[in-house]
Design goal:
Two copies of one chain form a homodimer. Chain A contains 13 helices and twelve strands. With 453 residues, chain A is α+β, with helices and mostly antiparallel strands. In chain A, the strands form two sheets. In chain A, strands 1, 2, 5, 6, 7, 8, 9, 10, 11 and 12 form a ten-stranded antiparallel beta sheet that branches. In chain A, a hairpin with a 2-residue loop joins strand 3 (170-171) and strand 4 (174-175). In chain A, helix 3 (59-66) crosses helix 7 (274-280) and helix 4 (107-125) packs antiparallel against helix 6. Chain A is globular and about 75 Å long. The N and C termini of chain A lie far apart (48 Å). At the A-B interface, helix 1, strand 1, helix 6, strand 6 and strand 8 of A face helix 1, strand 1, helix 6, strand 6 and strand 8 of B.
Chain lengths: 453, 453
């Protein structure tokens, strides 16, 4: 760093006269981190779901797991369980998602990576450091096992969710890692949607990792340490920071606003909707030969959607509300009622036109228009600097979990891309990824192990 | 958005059975925003410093203003005052900084912009919307005066700090806006520093705006609305999100960690150091003809510093600590003591070498090595996706406020760029800006008005 990042104390500035910090410094010789101490306090809650399931689960068991964890004694989200954390977990405030390409063809190296990542993800989600010695307790002449920037921070409700892209199964026409016939049918190559302007360096990836936390430093630390652990085995293909959630995944949460200024995801599936989750989010067996390693899994769709906010901001409130089909203030359907009132698509105004227009997004996106399909969305607002043309590069990093993208994403997105005025005039998809989310991990197991047995 | 962002209620999902939200929806017809209501509650505190100064201030008065605001009744940071908020304000958690190029040569248009921006910044920092009608209360057939994504959020301790780059005074050899002779002597063109790899689209800018808040959505909303207000007058040149602070600017704050995993800014100047702030941060009159419009101002240095974290992460703990000159765990000087103990550069170890090495960053950056100069730093950790080469693009967005960059930044940075092993091997400067920070605004005034009178 330039400047004086680590500039020492000015003689005479009485460093000992700073009570809040000297209390922290009372044990300077000890290398026990405060993060370690915090984590110890949370261990009781961390394994709460560990015993729920020891194998593939019935839909009832899945439903039980899908219920939100009890209001915590801590900010630790349990890592182990029949499903992965970070799907129905009440959406945390911040996201760091990364896509990795696997640069080895060695099956054993891949399995070792997945085991190491599982251990690291479990540790970090409990507020512990990675490795056995963390950032400061290892051999002095070796690189630390944790990068250290989360020392002193709490677990921050960190969840680390893993998903496998098509490139893990086959690439350039070749089967990889002995996974012949194991690629799930539902793990398709997404079609080109009208208007797509996908950038290769923002799309794809063999393994997608979603880190969510209430503290962005915790989420960034998680991805960074997985990248560190994977050095030589994986490369970062893309990464995306989401600064603010645009979805609620629990009825305990308020509906947040996207960068159009509208409440987003009012009708999102929630953790409490256990039957609907079973119907729309949790995958069936789904692989080509009917094997069940995806039972309890799901499919992650990520789309980086640039919003033309400068154009939007010069659009009248009438047009904005008409395009969405809801009021900007409360998010109520234009057909009347409150935010959570069901929209009435038939009711007409004095002019004889439907109060919710035929091209309103709320109509086109509604389950009734889409064979009844729903999804669990978990998107985030992003802003990534300037576009070089005088505008902010900002928008929505769309994340959704669905039972099967062939039925639950592609048809809806195809319709949107063709008919939705909002999508046509104000949105541009610049990144895309689809990946199979394996079920959760049991103690002693590792992520995706069903794929390698 | 693809998916069902605004998907309406599924018939039969009993929307009225959601207690937390129906309480909020009790007044669906009203367009009074919750943000507006929140702001009303905070108005008492918002003007607390308003009466402090009515003109140029003595150093005593500046010192009084520099003291941190009383622990607030709210999360509102006063906007008016002799100095701008966002310098000595206890560093908020998140940053959105943007550089704008002024694309008009019309002096009246520039003054109007500065007046409009002042009004908007004041409103937003008090948790109010921009304009008189905000996001939802204006004419239905006009674009809203506020973009709305901060509705429902608190003020989040937002500060908006403005600074003028050299390009506001002259560009391409031509004086702009009648500001002949008004460019401060201290507002130099920064020299090229060895190792600089500056990207034009991350550097410079006629007007720099720093928005800091504890909620990133609030900071992003602020910059975005200034861009909206400035449409046709300014263009966004670059913008930078900082996800986590790396500096403390008040003794009430814990020292945060940078992405090297070390505590950063232990010895930073703090709001409480009134004499040192007068000596090192607040600018003198400084303009070429001795006029005093910068009295109470400062100079902002912004440097986007990419960290080679992958290399750092493969460096031994011994080398990391040696390069910094402090322990990774507590941030104590390697010469002994606790975090805030003054480093002893003379004391030697058993091997006869200084415990704090000759090339340790803490030594090279220390005031004793730099003619006694200090700075007030206000930097943030950033991560901006991948670099396309398999690595995260992450590092430090360095922000500092200094009395005069000729004495308080350039010599130190030149020495660092030449001698500091840390800087040479692990850092790369990819963006740069220097701007003159005018003094604060009094009620009825506008930012930088001293420059136009």
């Amino acid at each position: 760093m330039s400047g004086c990042p680590y500039g020492g104390g000015q003689p005479g500035t009485a460093p000992d006269a700073v009570p809040t910090v000297s209390a922290q410094g009372d044990a300077p010789a000890s290398r026990m981190s405060r993060r370690g101490l915090l984590a110890l306090a949370g261990v009781g809650g961390a394994g709460a779901l560990a015993g729920v399931a020891a194998g593939l689960l019935s839909q009832d068991a899945l439903a039980a797991v899908a219920a939100p964890a009890e209001a915590g004694t801590n900010d630790v989200v349990p890592f182990h369980g029949a499903i992965q954390a970070g799907i129905t977990t009440a959406a945390q405030d911040r996201l760091h998602m990364a896509a990795f390409d696997v640069i080895t063809e060695d099956r054993a190296a891949l399995i070792k990576l997945l085991k190491d990542w599982t251990a690291a993800a479990e540790a970090m989600s409990q507020g512990r450091e990675t490795g056995t010695t963390g950032a400061v307790n290892g051999p002095y002449d070796a690189p630390p096992e944790d990068t250290g920037e989360a020392m002193g921070l709490s677990a921050g409700k960190l969840t680390v969710t893993f998903a496998f892209g098509a490139g893990l199964f086959e690439k350039d026409g070749k089967v990889r890692f002995g996974l012949d016939g194991r690629r799930p049918d539902a793990l398709i190559d997404l079609p080109h949607f009208p208007g797509d302007d996908l950038q290769p360096n923002r799309s794809g990836g063999d393994i997608i990792v979603q880190a969510c936390a209430d503290d962005p430093q915790v989420a960034v630390h998680a991805i960074r340490n997985l990248a560190r652990i994977g050095f030589g085995t994986v490369r970062v293909r893309w990464s995306q920071l989401g600064f603010g959630r645009t979805s609620s995944t629990s009825r305990s949460q308020q509906t947040p606003r996207n960068l159009f200024g509208f409440k987003d995801g009012t009708n999102n599936l929630k953790a409490e909707d256990t039957d609907l989750l079973n119907e729309h989010v949790w995958a069936g067996p789904g692989t080509r030969d009917g094997e069940a390693w995806m039972q309890g899994g799901s499919y992650l769709v990520a789309r980086r959607i640039r919003m033309h906010i400068e154009i939007w901001d010069r659009t009248s409130l009438r047009e904005q509300e008409g395009l969405i089909g809801r009021t900007k203030s409360e998010g109520s359907p234009l057909s009347g009622g409150k935010e959570f009132t069901a929209p009435d698509f038939a009711i007409k105004g004095k002019d004889g036109e439907p109060l919710i227009g035929m091209d309103a997004h709320v109509r086109l996106a509604h389950a009734d228009q889409n064979d009844g399909v729903r999804m669990l969305r978990r998107g985030y607002n992003y802003t990534d600097g300037s576009d070089g043309l005088g505008h902010l590069d900002a928008g929505l990093f769309f994340v959704a979990f669905v039972k099967d993208p062939r039925t639950h994403y592609v048809p809806m997105q195809m319709a949107m891309a063709k008919e939705d005025t909002l999508a046509l005039e104000y949105l541009k998809h610049t990144g895309s990824a689809l990946a199979a989310v394996p079920p959760g991990v049991q103690p002693g197991g590792f992520i995706g192990e069903g794929l390698f047995t």
